[in-house]
Amino acid sequence: MKTQPLRAPAASARGGIPAFEVMRVIDAVVARRQLGLPVFDLSAGQPSTPAPARVREAAARAVGAERLGYTNALGIPALRAAIAGHYLRTDALDVPAGSVAVTTGSSGGFLLAFLAAFDPGDTVVMARPGYPAYRNMLVALGCNVLELACGAHTRFQPSVAQLDALPVAPQGLVLASPANPTGTMVTPDELAAITGWCDSNGVRLVSDEIYHGITYTEPAASAWRYSRNAIVVNSFSKYFSMTGWRAGWLLVPDELLDAVDRLAGNFTICPPALSQVAALAAFDAYEELDANVLRYKDTRDLLLRRLPAIGVDRLAPADGAFYIYADVSRWTDDSLGFAARLLAETGVAVAPGVDFDPLDGGRFIRMCFAGDAAEIDRAVDLLGDWLAALPS
């Protein structure tokens, strides 16, 4: 009797979440560079500067002198204390070191936050456009995601009026201020109102604060100024210029600390030990880091000045972070194809809006201004010439 060969099992349904398209743009950028072709990269959402000098020096010392074994699941005590001290310095907030959980980047932080706070079947609200990993991670965990349409009429941020209009209060709300991809912020009064709404309705707020420190209009307020029921997510990636080090943190409400500790120990054992030791030195580098923000302000102003001159004049307010979210519906409703053609024909790389908004994102692109000013200026020249040749 002949037996049929066994077929390999299919991938899980949760593995079928949408791709993060900007990562594919980055792959195309790398391939283009390997061919020796010019690239003007406005796609990747990361600083172009290395980690602060003191961080790199601390890492070198640690590699030579320390064993770098496992650490506490929630991070080494010295780093948790230093993060708490950072809030006292920047926000005048008294944060107990015991409420800080160091994570494997903010991505690891979101995973722990979502697992600790929500169960399969729970509904979590987020803004559209918004960072796609919120949506995709929550869906993979079995949660229902409800996206609020937040366009120019709401400055691309959710409002209490929109939350009040929901037929049933959800279990969670993800709020980002400054936001990716738009760079917009909620005001302190708006943040107070949103945290108050969440507390009154038994909704767990997850506050994405990874772009705190990179603002141009006013400092960003932390949700913990108004409610200790919120989970705050932050990172060493953006302001601290340490994307590849994969170090972030949470501020965790008391009732969730044990759950986060259990999950962290099982999922990752601990955050990267070398990154934790090195990150301690980041809090001695404010002068260098603030100089980076001043440079971002210059490149932001360059784009806000030059883009309208080439016809790209419908832009989200770039209050913080290092992004311009631009309406390009004059030329396309297919931002994925638009971005691919732009890169192939000019070398200018941008992120397609469909990453951030699956319904209306075909009309938008995101441009990162964390790079070199001369390269960004040249990218606008090339973009302008390319757009001028397109039918509109």
Explain this structure.
- The structure is a single chain.
- The protein is an alpha/beta fold and 392 residues long.
- The protein folds into two domains: 13-50 and 286-388, Aspartate Aminotransferase, domain 2 (3-Layer(aba) Sandwich); 67-284, Aspartate Aminotransferase, domain 2 (3-Layer(aba) Sandwich), CATH 3.40.640.10.
- It is 38% helix and 13% strand.
- The chain has twelve helices and twelve strands.
- The chain has helices spanning 21-34, 53-65, 77-91, 105-117, 132-140, 160-164, 188-201, 257-267, 273-279, 286-306, 335-346, 373-388, and strands at 40-41, 100-103, 123-128, 144-149, 172-176, 204-208, 231-235, 248-251, 323-327, 348-349, 351-352, 364-368.
- The strands form three sheets. Strands 2-8-7-6-5-3-4 form a seven-stranded mixed β-sheet, sandwiched between helices. It has a three-stranded antiparallel β-sheet with strand order 9-12-11.
- β3, α5 (132-140) and β4 form a beta-alpha-beta unit.
- α10 (286-306) packs parallel to α12.
- The termini are far apart.
- The model has no long low-confidence stretch (mean pLDDT 95).
Q: How would you briefly describe this protein structure?
A:
This protein has 392 residues and is α/β, with parallel strands linked by helices.
